[in-house]
Amino acid sequence: MEEIYILGLLAVFLSIVIGFWALVKEEDDLHRILLTDLAEILALALIALVATDLAEALILPGLVVGISELMAISEVFLVREGLTRQPERMLHIEVMDSAPAILALALIGYGVLLSGFSGGAVAGIGVIFYFICKGHDERFAIFEVLSGYAWVMWIVAFFIFVLVPQYWFFGVLIAGAAILLKVAGKMSLVGTMRGGANV
Amino acid sequence: MFELPVTTIEGPEIFVIEFGDIVNYFTVYTAALFTFALLFTILVIISRPERQVDIAFGGDAFYTKDVTPAQMKFQRFMALACGLATLGAMMSGDVFNFTLFTSMVGITNIGIVAAYKYKHVLNAAFQYGIVAMIATVPLFGSAAIILATTGTLSMWELFGSTIAVPLIAKIFLVLGVMGEGMAPFYVAKAEITRAPGAPYVLMIHVSSLLLFLRVVEIVISM
Amino acid sequence: MKRENAFLIMIVAGAVCLAAGADWRTGFFAPWLAEILLIAAFPVFVLFLGLWWNASEGEEDIPFLGY
Amino acid sequence: MIDYLIFGTIIGLLFHGIHRKVIARIQGRPGPPIWQEILHTLKFSFKQTWIPKTASQTLFVWVVLVAIGIWSAALIVLVTEGSILLLFGIYMLHKIVEHGMGLSSGSPYGKFGAIRSVMSAASELPLFATVGAIYLFTGSLLLTDILAWQSAHGPLLIFAFPAAVALYVVILSKMHYSPFAIIESKEIVSGNMTEHFGVWRAGLEVAFALKTYVLLFAFVLLFLGPLPLWLVLAVMLLLLLSLSFICAFCPMLSPYDTVTMQSLTMGIVAVYIVIVGVILA
Prior knowledge:
The structure holds four protein chains of four kinds. Chain A is an all-alpha fold. Chain A has two domains: 1-84, no CATH class; 88-199, no CATH class. Chain A has helices at 2-25, 29-48, 53-81, 95-98, 100-114, 116-134, 140-163, 168-189. In chain A, α1 (2-25) runs antiparallel to α2, α2 runs antiparallel to α3 (53-81) and α7 (140-163) packs antiparallel against α8. Chain A starts with a helix and ends in a 10-residue tail after the last helix. In chain C, α1 (3-26) runs antiparallel to α2 (31-54). Chain C starts with a helix and ends in a 13-residue tail after the last helix. Chain D is mostly helical. Chain D has one domain (2-279). Helices cover 74% and strands 0% of the residues of chain D. In chain D, α1 (2-26) packs parallel to α11 (229-249) and α9 (161-174) runs antiparallel to α10 (199-224). The longest helix of chain D has 26 residues, at 199-224. Classes of the chains: A mainly alpha, B mainly alpha, C mainly alpha, D mainly alpha. Chains in contact: A-B, B-D, C-D. At the A-B interface, α1, α2 and α3 of A face α3 and α4 of B.
């Protein structure tokens, strides 16, 4: 066990050296963002090497922090390069006219069935798909309200766990539904916020 | 119930705040840092931005950039978030929480400067963001190595003499905190300082200096 | 700032400083309380002492400013 | 306690005056009388004052209060023999005061001073090398324990000489007219202090006097051990004279040279710590 850990650590350190060296060498800023994301994965690898349940709990916040930093500097990059124009529609195939509602509904339904974090991701993909096909007018007020409610549910579940632990199952259900809403809401924002009119 | 294992470094413990097995604490040292962070967070709330005067070198001409608080809403919010993250990092009694608060400080620092539309400020923000991002590798890496070798992340355990934290984890922790906004990478920060909005820009320095002071305490105690 | 207000704040801050100093010597309250009070009151005392000294009494000439 | 603060302020101001006098004499000028800085502070506090219209008013005023507050706290830490980590934490927080002073006014000179202050962040690093070295020897960072260790073993100046040099460089970089004082050098008027005049400057003078007093006092306590007060003051004066000599002879360095020098000091002490702490231990 101990040796395996040391071996894994060495492999990751080697990758870190390679990754950082590449970052130093790279001149193009866009490529540097991508390389940074690759380097970020090494942090996750380091956490994953712990190889216990706790590691799983630590990876999630690490991942969230990494993604949010990546999004922040990508936005900075876009503004700096003046790339604020709406992208024109790249893809237009028949299925995007006929199927979005039913496919999105199916995905959201399946997501609700799964519930929790992965359910949120599936449902979020459904919403993204719908937005890609149908276009969107940045109706973010709705999502803000939704995430607010999800957060309140989350806190309520927390209080149930702390104050009346015998109703834990109820708490789990509330928390699962809340994280579903939250993750779905957040996922659906990906790629849709381009500084348009907020209706 | 909770006794800090070492009091010879940062003075006696004042009180602890318990959240289950996550136990935050204040010693004389961290309480002083906390108070300082709180003071500057309040200053961010109550003070208005300054108006920068620029001079044209070689002549008598000067002009003043007029900035209203309304234009600085986003920076103000980010500076506030940065202050709160700093407060959290000051009282945290858990290495992973500390690293999370540190990276949150990194993100909010990018946010504070990224809102200015001047090319050189944005450029500095971008470079700073890249450094802050790759700094999360040693930052979380150190927490992971500490967890893997000692089996705990609680400072209450780690500060005791029975647990030996590997040197590489300590070095990684310091490197990570430095990358999120400290000394060797200050050239980008010097550019950032040129952006208007002194109370908010100042928060970048407050947070990074306080984080550094805290990490010194953690590393010496471990 | 009005001269009286500055004077008042200066006196209050000075009194707090003196009380904290006396408290620290006699150990009447906890020493940390005296220290915190002193750290908070001493800067206020210094600044308002100056503000009291230089506050206008309303009868001075208007200084010549600029060209 | 308040008596310590007032005593520290007056002695600190007197030290500043002596500093100016010595520099002047070395450079062949008569120089001001040694109580000039006390008069200076009084003069500033009598003068009319206001806040520049371009300034961020709250920050502009608060920074002065914070400056006096942190150095009062530092003196209290020394007097009550608390943790030197806290003392040096306060030294780092002084950096915030420097930034705040320069940034809050909106003046380009203040801004340049603040930017230079950010750049010379390397000046704080030797301090932590000092703290680390002291911890290696005494196993504690409480001033009480350090003083007790020195009573038992002899002054740390002998055992940890490079650390003392590092602290000396740190004190040097915060002195007026020092080769490292790029943040207030005259090509940017008065750097980050440019816009603070009148009462605000008087307050800052008080804070800086306390700072000089605290730093010299800390050097004596940390590296020579417990001495009677008159001897402490005499050693502080000697230390000050040596600093004045350096300030008188050295020209102002350029910002990048400053950073290089301070980083070099840091590097040397770091190597020393590795040798003492890792190889010899």
